[in-house]
């Protein structure tokens, strides 16, 4: 047997020992399945790692979308430099001040009221809790309510017993839980600001990448859904936040002329409450009850009447146009998205709920039409 025959025999034996190569189509399928499994595993692992910070990231995305037009206008007026740091930093600081300034005002006001509260506690321990003046001005059962109060709370033993029910252990536990919650919220707020800074700085690149990813994953319909959700966030900000601020300002003026104590703080509370459906009546209802307790019945009626007029106009005429007009979404679905979102995600649901509803309604419309419209 010659050398050539020996080499051919060796190659034949090695080929018999090696496994047969997969066909190209089957190999491509196995690699695609492996890539999908890898993506799913890494995505689940990433969500598990970041699950504590997902609300902060979601808030940063919502704020970046809501403030995107204002930031784009600022970019056109003051073009960023090579490093693109100063303008995003200033915008982020401005957002932080918008959220922190009311908290500082509330803290200062609470510090001013702390002395009066401590004095009230000392007097209650010494001489009981005197009957408030508004009991005598109640429209019915004023005498019975005053007599019950005097019999049960006006003497020193009752006041001391009532105040000592709050033992030091419960107060210390409440303080610890409150401090832990404040620290946790502060960390999430700081992380939201950091994420917001990078979204301001790299917003164009991030939005372009998201649109490309949606198009590659879902086709033209994916990009339309993404744009619809962004438009829903814009409409929700206009319809809830801006309209809520308007309601708070108008009712704050009414509070001022009606004699409501701390009208600025009550106006701010009304603005925040008005961002949630059916929340404004709670705010101006509390203001009216305070006026009734002070004996100012007519101003209280004025506050209630003005509150119902302002909220009726805002909820039935202004908000449907701003929210539904931006996404062509029926206001019923906007309302359901807001209420369901708040119940599921808290305040973040004010924006996530309508965005999800807008995407679902868009998909339903395109499904019932039976064809994909051009992007």
TrEMBL record:
Coiled-coil ranges (or none): none
Family according to the record: Belongs to the autoinducer-2 exporter (AI-2E) (TC 2.A.86) family.
UniProt keywords, alphabetically: Membrane, Transmembrane, Transmembrane helix
Main location: membrane
Location in or out of the cell: Membrane
Membrane in keyword set: yes
UniProt topology in membrane: Multi-pass membrane protein
Official protein name in the record: Transport protein YdiK
Pfam families reported for this sequence: AI-2E_transport
Gene behind this protein: ydiK
Transmembrane intervals: 56-74, 86-108, 182-200, 237-258, 264-291, 298-318, 330-363
Gene source species: Methylobacterium trifolii
Record lineage: Bacteria, Pseudomonadati, Pseudomonadota, Alphaproteobacteria, Hyphomicrobiales
């Amino acid at each position: 047997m010659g050398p050539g025959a020996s080499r051919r025999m060796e190659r034949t034996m090695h080929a018999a020992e090696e496994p047969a190569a997969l066909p190209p189509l089957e190999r491509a399928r196995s690699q695609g399945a492996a890539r999908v499994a890898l993506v799913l595993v890494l995505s689940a692992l990433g969500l598990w790692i970041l699950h504590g910070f997902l609300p902060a990231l979601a808030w940063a995305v919502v704020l970046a979308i809501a403030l995107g037009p204002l930031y784009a206008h600022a970019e056109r007026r003051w073009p960023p430099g090579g490093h693109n740091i100063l303008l995003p930093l200033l915008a982020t600081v401005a957002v932080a001040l918008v959220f922190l300034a009311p908290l500082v005002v509330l803290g200062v006001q609470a510090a001013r009221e702390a002395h009066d509260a401590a004095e009230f506690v000392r007097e209650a321990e010494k001489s009981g809790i005197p009957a408030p003046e508004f009991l005598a001005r109640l429209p019915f059962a004023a005498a019975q309510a005053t007599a019950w109060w005097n019999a049960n709370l006006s003497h020193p033993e009752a006041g001391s017993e009532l105040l000592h029910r709050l033992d030091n252990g419960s107060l210390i536990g409440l303080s610890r839980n409150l401090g832990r919650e404040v620290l946790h919220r502060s960390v999430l707020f700081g992380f939201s600001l950091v994420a917001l800074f990078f979204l301001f700085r790299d917003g164009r690149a991030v939005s372009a990448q998201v649109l490309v990813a949606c198009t590659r994953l879902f086709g033209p319909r994916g990009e339309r859904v993404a744009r619809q959700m962004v438009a829903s966030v814009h409409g929700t900000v206009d319809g809830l936040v801006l309209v809520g601020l308007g309601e708070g300002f108008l009712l704050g003026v009414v509070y001022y002329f009606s004699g409501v104590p701390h009208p600025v703080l009550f106006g701010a509370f009304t603005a925040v409450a008005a961002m949630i459906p059916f929340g404004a009546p709670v705010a101006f209802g509390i203001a009216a009850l305070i006026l009734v307790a002070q004996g100012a019945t007519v101003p209280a009626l004025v506050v209630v009447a003005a509150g119902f007029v302002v909220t009726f106009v805002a909820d039935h005429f202004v908000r449907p146009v701003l929210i539904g007009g931006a996404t062509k979404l029926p206001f019923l679905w906007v309302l359901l998205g807001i209420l369901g979102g708040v119940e599921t995600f808290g305040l973040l649901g004010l924006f996530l709920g309508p965005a999800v509803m807008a995407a679902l309604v868009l998909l339903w419309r395109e499904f019932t039409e039976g064809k994909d419209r051009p992007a």
